[in-house]
Automatic annotation (TrEMBL):
Protein name per the record: Prephenate dehydrogenase
Keywords for this protein: Amino-acid biosynthesis, Aromatic amino acid biosynthesis, NAD, Oxidoreductase, Tyrosine biosynthesis
Family membership noted in the UniProt record: Belongs to the prephenate/arogenate dehydrogenase family.
UniProt source species: Leucobacter luti
Pfam families in alphabetical order: PDH_C, PDH_N
Ranges for domain ACT: 303-369
Ranges of residues in domain Prephenate/arogenate dehydrogenase: 17-299
Listed pathway(s): Amino-acid biosynthesis; L-tyrosine biosynthesis; (4-hydroxyphenyl)pyruvate from prephenate (NAD(+) route): step 1/1
Length: 369
């Protein structure tokens, strides 16, 4: 199953309603929006009446009532510290339904449910690798899961019909299915999600005592490495606490790398110091080359930088002209020049079209770097 996936589209959905979503924050509301876009009936539930009403107002579904039929599928999208409670209650309240949770930790809820002696026949843990720096229904998107990995954690006792329901909703929302054990999942997200969050937050914390003059020099590198530091601290306290063993192990190894780098940099003239510094930097090159590109592919892109005037309509004009030139934009990042009425549009394109893109844009009067 690893690597199989689909985008949302015109084909008939695999999922049939009603689907009940417990937790109307970012993930729950995004699930609701995506399913509603596919014509699937979605009911919503949340401990906060305001939260569930807001999600319903945004079109993520409707608030469940006592008269609604029992759902075939329940999706638990609560914070990690109450996921086991919500899954147990859903299995009890809807004994005929399949229940999945989309929390970012898979082993801790499973162990807690097992400890309680809950019948987990109709439970399938899952996790879409998608999110945003800010949560809540107001930030939800119907396309949040498109082309993103969606991990399914099942075991040999998982009924085929239950597995098919959970896989179906993931595919209907555009996810790319990947099968892992809970242990493999938690170790993996510790490396690719939880460690980066801690590193980004600690780096951004170093900015607090910095002078305004120093902050004024900030560029794309700092923005890139601290972007996720804006995430919700309360939620991350729960995530990191639930996955502390893999994260602590990773932090210890990362700390050893930092100590080795600092030791070499402290006296670059010492024998072998320059090589240790170069080796660690080169290892970073090797590591970043393994990060999947667009839609999970390993394809790499070339970035061209276009100067644009900081006034209405300029970015739209640039994108229009790229379309007219037949240049497919793989990614876009904007940066403003402090104190100047100019911006930089960094556009990722396929390497084989980069030279033509630059030449054609310059011919049309655009300035490139």
């Amino acid at each position: 199953m690893s690597g199989a996936g689909a985008r949302t589209g015109s084909r008939a959905p695999r999922t049939t309603g009603p689907v009940h979503v417990i937790g109307a924050g970012l993930l729950g509301s995004s699930v609701g929006l995506g399913l509603r876009e596919r014509g699937i009936d979605v009911t919503l539930e949340d401990l906060s009446p305001t939260t569930v009403a807001l999600a319903a107002d945004y079109g993520a579904g409707r608030v469940r009532t006592a008269d609604d039929p029992a759902p075939a599928l329940v999706i638990v999208a609560t914070p990690p510290d109450v996921a086991a409670d919500a899954v147990e209650r859903a299995l009890t309240t809807f004994p005929g339904a399949v229940v999945t949770d989309v929390t970012s930790i898979k082993l801790a809820p499973l162990l807690e449910l097992t400890r309680r002696g809950v019948d987990l026949t109709n439970y399938v843990g899952s996790h879409p690798m998608a999110g945003r720096e800010r949560g809540g229904a107001i930030m939800a998107r119907a396309d949040l899961f498109v082309a993103r990995p969606w991990v399914i954690c099942r075991d040999e006792e998982t009924p085929a019909a239950a597995l098919a329901l959970v896989e179906g909703v993931a595919l209907d929302l555009g996810g790319v299915l990947i099968e892992m054990t809970p242990e493999e999942h938690d170790s993996s997200v510790g490396l690719v999600s939880h460690l980066p969050q801690v590193v980004s937050s600690l780096l951004a914390a170093r900015l607090v005592p910095a002078t305004e003059q120093a902050i004024g020099l900030a560029g794309a590198g700092l923005r890139d490495t601290t972007r996720i530091a804006a995430s919700d601290p309360e939620l991350w306290m729960q995530i990191l606490g639930a996955n502390r063993e893999p994260v602590v192990e990773l932090l210890d190894a990362f700390g050893a790398d930092i100590a080795a780098f600092a030791d070499a940099l402290r006296d670059p003239a010492q024998q072998g110091a320059k090589r240790r510094i170069a080796d660690l930097l080169q290892a970073g090159n090797s590591g970043v080359s393994r990060i999947p590109g667009k839609h999970g592919s390993s394809e790499r892109f070339t970035t061209i930088t276009v100067l644009i005037d900081d006034r209405p309509g300029q970015l739209a004009l640039l994108l229009t002209e790229l379309g007219e030139l037949g240049i497919n934009m793989e990614d876009l990042r904007l940066e403003h020049s402090p104190g100047a009425q100019i911006g930089f549009a960094e556009i990722a394109v396929l390497p084989e079209v980069a030279d033509r893109a630059v030449a054609d844009l310059v011919e049309r009067g655009w300035r490139t770097l």
